Amino acid sequence: MLQPIPIKAEGLRNNNQDTTCYILKSYVKIENNSKTSASRVKLEVPIIANINSPYQKIIAEKFSIAPVAINESDNGNRMAVFDIGNIKPGSKITIVAEYKIKVYGSNWLNSSNDLHLNHPQIYLSPGPKIESNSPEIKAIAQNILNQVDNHDEVAIAQAAFDYTIKTLKYSLYAPSVNQGALSALENGAGSCVEFASLFVAITRAAGVPARIVNGFADKVAPLSKADSNINLDSRHQWAEFFVDGKGWIPADPTLSTSRLRVFGKLPTGYYVAQNYGDSPIKGKYNGGKLSISYGGYWIREVANF
Asked: Which residues form the Transglutaminase-like domain (predicted)?
């Protein structure tokens, strides 16, 4: 049975009643590929953040294997801890998390909220895959600042967004895949990780707080029509930038094309945010050789719940 969880309010308030209801299932598959058993297997798995985000509201959740603990950070990110025990040679174990979610649509650029960022430096500093202090990215940011009003966060983010979508081509086979902003800039291609990372790195270097959003995207390729070969159906990464008095504003340079611009407004009902920043699966075990895969899929609901 899906269990309700308490939701704490944070970030922008949704100002659009247009909602889509989903059952979202995410899974972790663990396989022992060796000839010896793996013992004392423990995993920490990122699960959907416990926040009332601009995108969604979690109504309830359940797990196929009960976690022994759920740890929550200050920004609402959650990690579920699973004590798997032993996994025999050649055996597989799958952990399924099922969420009941209402997904909202809104234009956050048109919103007005009394929101201010308490610790902006966190979202202005370089980080893994976000090399905002590199000379190459700082030069791009300075060029943007030379052309727009330095106090206009939206204009700065817009310019960083435009640069990203003009510079990168989507490819899952580029050498820069999953390597981050600087590698994407050098190779001119990458996956959603590179698109989001380059946008965030340039935006931070230009003095506007920005962050990575990890989550899930429904089949959004038809939205971008014929000029895109992107078929997002499950795991996805996009970005947000912060505007004082408005809050966190979403932007998805990966999906944006000449026919569709995902800046300030997400296509209604296509995105579910899981967490912010880099929250990889962590594991400990003795013996064996484990491989771990991670993903998710949607079941669209017809009626509200």
From this structure: 184-255
123 sits in which H/E element: none
Q: What is the pLDDT of residue 229?
A: 47
Q: In 3-state terms, what secondary structure has residue 125?
A: coil
pTM as predicted: 0.81
* C-alpha of 246 from chain center: 20
Burial-class residue 51 by CB neighbours within 10 Å (0-12, 13-18, 19+).
Answer: buried
- Judge contact between 98 and 25, C-beta under 8 A: yes
- Non-local (6+) Cβ contacts of 274 within 8 A are 26, 46, 47, 48, 49, 214, 215, 216
Measure the CA–CA gap between 76 and 48, rounded to whole angstroms.
9
Structure tokens at 278: 């880099």
Which one-letter amino acid corresponds to residue 79?
M
Q: Confidence band (pLDDT; 50, 70, 90) for 63? A: very high
Round to whole Å and give the CA distance between 21 and 56. Answer: 9
Question: Locate tokens 């050498």: which residue?
Answer: 175
Pick the CATH number of 3-105+279-300 from 1.10.760, 3.90.1740, 2.60.40, 2.60.120: 2.60.40
| Sign, CA torsion 155/160/161/162 | positive
Domain ranges of the chain: 3-105+279-300, 110-267
Contact 276, 75 (CB under 8 A): yes
Is 144 in contact with 163 (CB distance < 8 Å)?
yes
Q: How far is CA 25 from CA 62, 128, 196, in A?
A: 10, 28, 24
pLDDT classification of 75: cutoffs 50, 70, 90 = confident
The pair of structure tokens assigned to 288 is: 């064996």
